[in-house]
Design goal:
The complex is a heterodimer of chains A (144) and B (311). Chain A is an alpha+beta fold and 144 residues long. Chain A has 3 helices and 6 strands; from the N terminus they run αββααββββ. The longest helix of chain A is centred in the N-terminal third of the chain and has 56 residues. In chain B, helix 4 packs across helix 5. Chain B starts with a helix and ends in an 18-residue tail after the last strand. Classes of the chains: A alpha+beta (144), B alpha+beta (311).
């Protein structure tokens, strides 16, 4: 009887110990995972933003890609920006990507064939040649 | 006695160890929380810098589009943004007999440009912009849209600022349409010369239709002369007779309004037209009226329904 009591108290002590330790380990583990995921997402989101910024800062044939895209969107002329895909292939180092506009005339401006990017997206508002009803458009770049 | 203390000692040791472990992990938790908060803050700052960079990237094209739109807009209104002179359907009279109104088109263009540029800036609602001034160096083709203050991007508890000054290269070649308009219709009254040719070869009793047809031919000849002279410069003239007011007692005594269009045909720009309500590639053309003749009359006027681009 006495032996059983001792065993019970010891067992309770161990359970309490494990319980308390687990109670703090679990949230810390979750927090660590969350931190890693957050940092990774932020890093990749920053990357998506950087890709978009790099694309818009590049020049092609003596003019900024920014201007070509904005002219093209206002004029609804996809031919003007047909080279954007080749530029994005280089910038993203052949990652999966899709570039589209909010009021696009076709589905996408440029995209990597054979994949569907879903993970990280960056947006940029770009100005268009003057039209009081539509001064800007929003470009969205989704990668990976 | 010793046997009774045993389980309690184990339980106590267990609790003490648990509390010690808890303390270690709690400290770790706090440190990690600070790290997470810092990472979140830094991420937000990097993202804000990128956002501001996107806005900064938008300023040169916004200035360029504003410049061409303002150029098209003011030229189509005879070099005026707000029509504070006699006008007919948004087109001013540059000449009424010997009275001339030649616009200070550079100032008007700058004013209109800044107004359009402000419309663009209002699209970026997270950024506060200062007031800008615009300066166009006609010789170098350098357009500067500048300010002494900074643009500011505000997020919850911090603010990022940057220099918003813009310098872009633009075409100024089409300014010659103003000079050619002045040379031919302000410095000399070519319309009056055409009207005098009609008057000299007609009589009071001639029919109004005959006088009108003769004037149209004279104006058409003037247009041909101007085009043969200036077409090599990439400038085309188009003249059309508007209204003719006759002396009730003599049809060869009359005054006429003539619409003059001077167009730079060397290059097209993507601009918006308020009549067609579309944005497409267009030539920049100057419109103005000349009212002249040997009959004293008031030129016809009509109010303008187009919006005024005033900053």
């Amino acid at each position: 009887m006495k032996g059983f009591l001792i065993f019970t108290i010891a067992a309770i002590g161990i359970i309490v110990f494990i319980g308390i330790v687990a109670m703090f380990l679990l949230p810390i583990g979750i927090l660590k995972m969350h931190t890693i995921v957050t940092v990774e997402r932020a890093y990749n989101y920053d990357n998506a933003q950087s890709y978009l910024l790099t694309l818009l800062s590049k020049t092609h044939g003596g003019d900024f890609v920014y201007n070509d895209i904005s002219y093209s969107l206002q004029a609804k002329d996809p031919l003007v920006i047909s080279y954007v895909k080749a530029e994005l292939d280089k910038i993203t180092d052949n990652k999966c990507y899709k570039l589209s506009s909010a009021i696009n005339y076709t589905n996408n401006i440029a995209m990597k064939q054979g994949c569907t990017p879903v993970k990280y997206s960056a947006q940029a508002k770009i100005v268009l040649p003057y039209n009081p009803d539509r001064l800007t458009d929003t470009l969205t770049l989704v990668i990976e | 006695m010793k046997k009774g203390i045993g389980p309690l000692a184990i339980a106590l040791i267990g609790i003490v160890v648990a509390i010690a472990v808890e303390g270690v992990y709690l400290a770790n938790f706090v440190i990690r929380s600070e790290f997470s908060t810092r990472v979140a803050g830094e991420t937000l700052i990097v993202q804000s810098i990128n956002e501001l960079e996107f806005v900064k990237r938008a300023l040169p094209p916004a200035a360029t589009y504003s410049y061409y739109q303002a150029s098209y807009y003011t030229a189509s209104r005879g070099g005026y943004d707000s029509l504070d002179v006699q006008s007919y359907s948004c087109i001013p009279y540059w000449r009424v007999y010997t009275e001339t109104d030649y616009p200070d088109y550079r100032t008007r263009l700058s004013s209109s440009l800044l107004s359009i540029f402000s419309e663009y800036l209002r699209q970026f609602d997270k950024v506060t912009f200062p007031s800008f001034t615009a300066e166009i160096d006609e010789d170098s083709g350098r357009l500067s849209v500048s300010t002494s203050d900074k643009m500011r991007y505000s997020v919850t508890n911090y603010q990022i600022s940057d220099d918003p000054n813009v310098g872009v290269q633009v075409d100024t070649g089409f300014f010659r349409i103003y000079e050619l308009g002045r040379e031919n219709f302000i410095d000399v009254d070519r319309i009056r010369i055409s009207i005098d040719n009609v008057i000299g070869s007609h009589y009071c009793t001639d029919l109004k239709e005959t006088i009108s047809a003769a004037l149209s031919t004279e104006i058409s000849n003037l247009q041909s002369d101007l085009n043969s002279h200036y077409s090599s410069m990439g400038v085309s003239f188009s003249l059309s007779v508007g209204s003719i007011q006759y002396d009730p007692d003599c049809n060869s005594t009359f005054a006429a309004s003539v619409l003059v269009n001077v167009r730079d045909t060397s290059k097209q720009y993507m601009v918006y037209d308020y009549n067609e309500m579309t944005t497409k590639n267009r030539y920049i053309g100057l419109n103005f009226y000349v009212f002249s003749g040997n009959y004293d009359a008031e030129p016809p006027t009509r109010s303008c329904s187009q919006p005024v681009k005033k900053s």
